[in-house]
Amino acid sequence: MVAIMTATPHTDAPPTERPVRQLLAASVGNAVEWYDWYAYTFLATYIAGAVFPKGANDSLVPLLSTFAVFAVGFFMRPVGGLLMGAIADRHGRRSALTVTILLMGGSSLLVGLTPTYAAVGVLSPVVLVLARLLQGLSVGGEFAASTTFLVESARPGRRGLFSSFQYVSTTAGQLLASGIATLLVDTLDEGRMDSWGWRVPFALGAVLSLVGFWIRQGAQETRSEEQRRAPRPGLLEGLRRHPRESLLICGITMGGTIAYYTWTSYLPTYAELNAGVAKSDALLAGTISLAFFGVLQPLGGLLSDRFGRRPLLLFFGLGFALLSVPLLHALRDSFAVLLLVQCAGMVLLTGFTSISAAVNAEVFPARVRAAGIGFPYSLTVAVFGGTAPYVGTLFKELGHAGAFPWYVAALCLGSSLVYLRLPETAHGELRR
């Protein structure tokens, strides 16, 4: 395993002439991508009522169905990571980023135009599933291409800092989605939210995607001249030639993705279902904690550039293994308690999110970096992150809501064992 992570000199020359513009191109587009993706989560209860038939006695069946579609979208992410990653490795990072932003805009518009179950019956969830599949394809490709683009754009000794902007922009998109959802819930009555209010954020997302597309046209390609002249890599070359690196990505990501999607996406719903927190309070607490989380990311990236990646990863993994259960069990019908629990989790989570892009990029060589990262990362996120809302809601439906925090803790402990054996890569060169 040590041999996998040993850095080797390279001839790539990162485009350091315009680092701010590179960050802007990656970050703005990424923020739009994730705004579209997360708007679905924050408005899940309204989508459930419009698209799925209600179960007997107003059970959790419609909400479970909505989160099942959420999970289905995640299972297209490995395909997107592989296909868009291959485009990035063969034709350039900027080309892949252009495709992903347009694909996300179209799928967001499709969600907003999804007809209700009352109007068209079973066709309604079919349209929703199709839209989420397209979104999953886009998001999987976005992570592969933007992770590679950001880290390759960094000056020496600043890969951690540049890496942190992956989640700065992701959080900005999520924050925008949460803020707009909160504004709509507070402004519109239940009838208007149920009928048309929930569609507004998705229509806005389609417009924002065009803005992101325009900004990315000015980005500078980070794929080296040497890579452009070399034979194009095969679609599965990363998996075939680097199987241990692929497994390493899975182990690094497993705990991080369950913690991330629990704390940043599912916790408002979890608090509503298990602690009786009002919907508006849950969304507001989520918005505030996300802003706090975004501010923390560059600090985590800078610390990793100075002290290394492994200390931050262990801070995250062991912290969640020990504290997931007491933090989630502490929730009650209190806005202040929910906010405190969310912010505490955000501090721990920063140890993973601020540097995950750098850690992933430092595993694979440049030739297959985007596709090599995209597939195993997205597959792990699909298995453990995309199913988090569904698993948590299912535990509640089965009468075992208290088991979900233990599930989170166990996965974080598993990743911590990987971090303990992870060689340090912060101060070496990217692999050729």
UniProtKB/TrEMBL annotation:
It is found in: Cell membrane. It is a multi-pass membrane protein. CDD domains: MFS_KgtP. The chain crosses the membrane at residues 63-84, 96-120, 196-215, 246-263, 283-303, 312-331, 337-359, 371-392, 404-422. Residues 22-426 form the Major facilitator superfamily (MFS) profile domain. GO terms for cellular component: plasma membrane. Pfam families: MFS_1. The keyword Transmembrane applies. One of its GO terms (molecular function) is symporter activity. InterPro entries: H+-coupled_symporters, MFS, MFS_dom, MFS_trans_sf, Sugar_transporter_CS. Keywords: Cell membrane, Membrane, Symport, Transmembrane, Transmembrane helix, Transport. It comes from the Bacteria. Belongs to the major facilitator superfamily. Metabolite:H+ Symporter (MHS) family (TC 2.A.1.6) family. May be a proton symporter involved in the uptake of osmolytes such as proline and glycine betaine. This is Putative proline/betaine transporter.
